[in-house]
Amino acid sequence: MSGVRKKFDELRMTGSLPSPSGVGLRILEITKDENYDQDDLVRTIMADPALSGRIIRLANSASMGSIEVVQSVPQAAMRLGVNTVRSIALGFTLISDNKRGASSEFDFDGFWSFALCIAVASSQISLERSLDDPVDAFTCGLLADFGRLALACVHPERYSQLMRDYPDATGDDLARIEGRIFEINHREVVSLMMEDWGLPVSYRLAVADSVQEEVPEVARTRAAVLRKIIAGGRSIAKVLCTDRETQASTWLRSYFQLEPAAANLSIATSCLLQVGDGVGPAWEEWGRTVGVATPKPPSLTRIAAELAAAEVRPPDEPAPVDLPAHNLLEDDGLEDLADPPKPDAPIPESSAPTRLLLIDDDERMLRLISHHLRKEGYEVHTATDPHEGMQKALTIDPQILITDWMMPGMTGLELISTLRRSEAGRKMYILIVTAREDDERVVEAFTAGADDYIVKPFNPRILLARVRAGTRMIRMRERVEASERAQLRQVAELGILTRRLRSAALTDALTELPNRRYVMRRLKHDWDSFQKLGTPFSVVLADIDHFKRINDQHGHDVGDAVLRMVGEVLMDGARSGDIVARVGGEEFLALNVNADLDSATACAERLRIAVEQIDLAKLGLQTPLTMSFGVAQAEPGMESSDDLIKAADEALYAAKAAGRNQVARAPKFGGGPAPAKSA
């Protein structure tokens, strides 16, 4: 396995690598089989109304060259073909599932807007110039930079730091920096992801020429065309997605790159400008479909006329970006990268020759056998007595061992029996050389642990054939073991992923507290214990006072920071064993196990005081922060935990009505709440 593929496998094992899900994943799985069920494909598409609509609209587009209007998914799928449907589903689900991430510097909305622009522009180039299938060009354009998003998802902090340190790094410079930091760049990542998804090899070659296996020339030829199309689409996208006013120099450099991009496509620059002018409607439509904002693009032909009239010249090219030296090498869960190899260094392949150990007290025989085996490319080691052979066998770990039967001090059978008791010896393919061939002797050899035998004198061709047979057995066993290891790894990966998904499903992403789903499950468990055993427990509902003002006056980023602070204070101030969860926007809930109403009220009062003492000056807020609390205890008269929550909610309402920043407690079930005295 190459170093790049190994690194990719490490990324995949984190469980954070984005991939198609839901309908998109199901469509990929269905269409991997050439004999797929058309009805199954149609049912899967129809399960997603938005995707269905997109496929029908494309089937009715002018590019399909038909005047007959398609009105159903089966008709659309038939007209488009399986490859087109698969590409649309892949792009659709990838965008829908990956609009957010933990990387603070990575602009997910901007990324998808730019990717859609590349995709639409690439499709338009392909359509206008009849260079390739427009749908394939769209898919490759959309995924061309997807490896960047993938790296940002797996390494959010380190990729954010990269973007802070090298905000203008693009293309080869960016790939070079990524290779230095992560030992794999975004082009290599997306190429290997495409392989996992079962996409054509020409796609993979178009985004990154890193395919290891032998590839038909037709695939390489098509990939070269797609690569040129994507380059043209990217050139258009850079101009359309860069603000001409605020990023004037960057925009101007991008604009003057349109001419070499057109030359690369063997078309006039004016043709590429016209393609750019036609990008807007499809770009906007895709943005609406998947919920990505797209700016209204300017007219490139009009801008070209303006610049020509003003005789504007291309600006100087910026200096190449230097590689990072230090600050992006902090560990975030994968192996230490303190001193990774240079990206240009060749990656050693696992193609070492098969190791053989020959043991024979006849040196002439050793030389003869060694000569023939080395000519065939085997790595040959020798020993002239069984004791030396035993030591070497345990030291060099040969894959194949050839030993003579009769030797002084220890017979070949004794040597084999001893080796088979060791872990290294159990894996060896052992061939024994004997001067006699009879049934008893053969049985004795196999009983001792030999895999094969050869009789003296022997033809070297026979020996080589036996060794080749042994080599095939070894390779087969290695493949089986590798498959078993892969299965075990997949099981481990699945376990990790399951735990992460379970944790994510039960955790509030903003505060990292348990979420409503978790706390309601726990509430049901505590309620059952109360019903069966009479175990006392109470519920505290809390709400941040006037939180809407914070969001309205200071923005949601400040509001989110306040919520995180409150979550930390509530968690730190709660009793050991209490559960504190965020159950709504600014609403929190605490389960006080083994606590009566008085104890829960005292706990709520401590939390109220702790919140009141939060220093918001660091966030630029001068007003104090306060919370209101409602407390209720589980009582025999309640029919379910819903009654308990309702009582706490009514108590919270009373605390707010009484002026906020206080604790109110529910009376005996059925009465109205009575505020507790606040400190």
Describe what you observe in this structure:
The structure is a single chain. The chain is of the alpha/beta class. It contains 30 helices and eleven strands. A six-stranded mixed β-sheet has the order 7-8-6-9-10-11, with helices on both faces. Strands 2-1-3-4-5 form a five-stranded parallel β-sheet, with helices on both faces.
Blueprint of the fold:
Blueprint: H1 3-13, H2 22-31, H3 38-46, H4 49-59, H5 73-80, H6 82-97, H7 108-129, H8 134-143, H9 146-154, H10 156-165, H11 171-182, H12 186-197, H13 201-207, H14 217-241, H15 248-256, H16 258-264, H17 269-277, H18 280-290, H19 300-309, E1 355-359, H20 363-375, E2 379-383, H21 386-396, E3 400-404, H22 412-420, H23 423-427, E4 429-434, H24 439-448, E5 452-455, H25 460-505, H26 516-533, E6 537-544, H27 547-554, H28 556-573, E7 579-582, E8 587-593, H29 597-612, E9 627-633, H30 641-657, E10 663-665, E11 674-675
Parallel strand pairs: 1-2, 1-3, 3-4, 4-5, 9-10
Antiparallel strand pairs: 6-8, 6-9, 7-8, 10-11
Helix pairs in contact: 2-3, 2-6, 4-5, 6-8, 7-8, 7-14, 7-18, 8-13, 8-14, 9-10, 9-12, 12-13, 13-14, 14-15, 14-16, 14-17, 16-17, 27-28, 28-29
